[in-house]
Amino acid sequence: MSALTLGELLERSAALHPQKEALVVGHERVCYAEVLAASKRTAAALAALNVKPRDRVGILATSSIDYINVLFGSILLDAIPVLLNNSWPDEYFPACFKALGLKTLITSAGELHDRATAIVEAEKLPIAIHPIAQLVGANSARPVKPAANRAKSTHPAVVVFTAGTTGVPKPCCLTHETLTIKTASFVERTEFREDSRLWLGVPMYQVGFLAPLISAITIGATVIATTSAGAETDRMTLIEEAVTHAYPIYLHRWLPIAYGPGFKASDFPRLSHLCLIGPARTLRRVQRGLPQCVVMSIYGGPEGGGGYCMPRPDDPAAIRLESCGKPFSGHELRIVSPKDGQVLARQQIGEIQARGPGIPQTCDLGGRRSSFTEDGWLRTGDIGMLNDAGDLIYFGRESEMLKIGDDVVPASRLEALLLDYPDVAMAQILPIPDDALGEAVWAFIEPRPGTNIAAAEIIDFCRARMPENQLPRAITFVEDWPVSASKIQKILLYDLPKDWRSA
Q1: Is this structure's pTM higher than 0.70?
Q2: Is residue 394 within 8 Å of residue 382, measured between CB atoms?
Q3: Tens digit of pLDDT for each residue in 376-418?
Q4: Which end of the chain is more exposed for a tag (fewer CB within 10 A), N or C?
């Protein structure tokens, strides 16, 4: 368990690996010494703006080297960076700014700066907005004390947000300890080394970027950040940067790469590890397409600063692809009945709950204490089970369980079946009311590029693989998915028209 703060981790890596390449973002490259120097300059610029320890510094910006400098510049001051999702609709921001007590907001130039300015002026909020490039490029003679003299590992380090796939995102206040306690387990289970090159396919405001970034900094590895949502650009980045560890997390980020016309496993001779969340049958297909690579799943959430559990690379494929492995050090998992809260035995399905030093329970942002049981377990709202060996099998969010007649059917299972159809690139399932069954299936399907799928083909394919009452009653074909923090925002799919509906 590390007792270092995030600022101290950066200082240590800059001392041990000063000229080692730390970050690659687009065409920009910086070494560890440059990241630390720029972060210190940014800390001085923030101090000159009267930012004090424990003040919250909002960051509303696109992924860039400057973003990392503001993140660590704030941390070096023992201020608390607030990583804002720049894909939120404008109406989410006023309540968020007020609840967090923001007085300083750092933005990218252009649209994000204009949006933030309009929101702050319309709400008459006492928030000073500063362009990120101007702040990072500022010179200040005001000294900044070393992080060791300012912050402790138990202090709040950063605020991230839940994805908001089914409602308004919630803030999650994470301590330094929360973010560092899982580092050793993550490094071990991904076989991460100093010479590893980690591609993170999610935006910098997401905990799925932050937690692996901290692991990379801890051992002096290189992080390659994506600046494009284009599959072909991502594919070329993986090749040209000789990526060893790919961390796209979500299927809708990886499958367009894998299904692209230019994809060849032989183009990735150094790619040794790929981390994805998805149904086992889909992960098996990904594994077959990359035989030289260890494909594995992970389970976690922003409340716990990233992952809670993960398989080991030498686990059998059935464990790596069908389960999320065993808990990290400092984490415990249990399964309880959603009806009465009773702890369930192995092989029984219920709500996943988590606790431990990696799951913080105190936060002064409101709305978090109710997420915990009286005995200190976080209610995740996810459904799963522990197998006989203690590996977690994840079925999906409780809100994504379809109640079809007498059956409770995970949406993820139906999505995996649809992904078996050769011309389907991505699929999502939502329930729709049904007088006879209670709920029926609404399927959202993205065809692979260059294909044209008819609804009748989908129904015929499904009829041979699932009960009649689980066949899609409605099908909508999708080209662009509504995304929040890199997750498909399912609640917005309800606004799409039904291209096909059964009688």
Answers
A1: yes
A2: yes
A3: 898 888 999 999 999 999 988 887 888 898 888 888 889 988 9
A4: C
